[in-house]
Recover the amino acids of this structure.
C-alpha cells in the first residue's frame, strides 16, 4: 500500500479525493493544460504522470488500468495514440506547473499545469551541437587577430613627418611642431613654439600642410623665423 499523503485531503473522503484527481487528469489530457489551485496542481502531477507511464507501455493491460481511472474512452485513446508517443523519449517530467498569482475572491494561489510535449534532444545531438559551436568559435575570432595589422597601417606617419621622441627634443632635420588635436603646426621662433609640446614633427611647412595641418595663428604668425 502506498503511504497516504500527509495533511488535509482535497475532498471529504479518500474516494472523493481520488475521483477529483482522476477528473482533473482527464481534463488535463483532453485540453493539454488546465488552470487550478497550486495545491491541486501539485497533487495532480504524480497521478497524471503515472497514467502517462502506463500509456507509454501501450499494451492491453495498461489500457485497462488507465480505464479504471479515466471514464472517457476518447480521452484514453488520445492519451495512448498522441500523448504517449510524444513522451516516448522523455524519461520523466511529463508535466509543468507555472504559478500565475492569486485568485480574486478567496485569494487562493493559482497555477497552470500543462503537458510537456516538446521533443527531447538526445545526448548525442547536444554533444554534436557543442562540438560545432566550439569549432566555429576560432573562425569567428580570426578577423579580430588581423586588427593589429590594420591598426599599425592606420598609424603610419605622413611624408616628411617624424614621431615624437622621449626626450622631447626635435629630431635631426625636423623642427616644425605639430598638434594632432588642433591640426596646427608651429615653426621655430613663432609665438607659441616654445610652450608647445610636439605630438608630431615635420621637416618643412609644405610637409605639414600636405598632411592637413594649418599654421597656428595664421600664415603671418608662422613667418617670424623666415
Amino acid at each position: 500500500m502506498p503511504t497516504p499523503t500527509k495533511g488535509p485531503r482535497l475532498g471529504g473522503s479518500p474516494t472523493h479525493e481520488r475521483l477529483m484527481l482522476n477528473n482533473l487528469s482527464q481534463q488535463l489530457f483532453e485540453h493539454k493544460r488546465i488552470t487550478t489551485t497550486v495545491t491541486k496542481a501539485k497533487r495532480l502531477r504524480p497521478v497524471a504522470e503515472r497514467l502517462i507511464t502506463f500509456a507509454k507501455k501501450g499494451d492491453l493491460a495498461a489500457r485497462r488500468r488507465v480505464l479504471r481511472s479515466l471514464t472517457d474512452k476518447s480521452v484514453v485513446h488520445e492519451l495512448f495514440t498522441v500523448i504517449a508517443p510524444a513522451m516516448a523519449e522523455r524519461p520523466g517530467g511529463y508535466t509543468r506547473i507555472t504559478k500565475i498569482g492569486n485568485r480574486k475572491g478567496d485569494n487562493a494561489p493559482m497555477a497552470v499545469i500543462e503537458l510537456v510535449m516538446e521533443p527531447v534532444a538526445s545526448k548525442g545531438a547536444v554533444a554534436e551541437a557543442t562540438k560545432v559551436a566550439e569549432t566555429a568559435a576560432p573562425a569567428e575570432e580570426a578577423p579580430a587577430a588581423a586588427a593589429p595589422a590594420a591598426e599599425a597601417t592606420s598609424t603610419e606617419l605622413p611624408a616628411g613627418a617624424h614621431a615624437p621622441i622621449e626626450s622631447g627634443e626635435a629630431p635631426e632635420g625636423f623642427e616644425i611642431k605639430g598638434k594632432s588635436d588642433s591640426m596646427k603646426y608651429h615653426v621655430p621662433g613663432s609665438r607659441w613654439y616654445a610652450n608647445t609640446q610636439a605630438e608630431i614633427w615635420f621637416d618643412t611647412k609644405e610637409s605639414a600642410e600636405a598632411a592637413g595641418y594649418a599654421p597656428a595663428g595664421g600664415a603671418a604668425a608662422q613667418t617670424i623665423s623666415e
Observations:
- The CA atoms of residues 104 and 118 lie 32 Å apart.
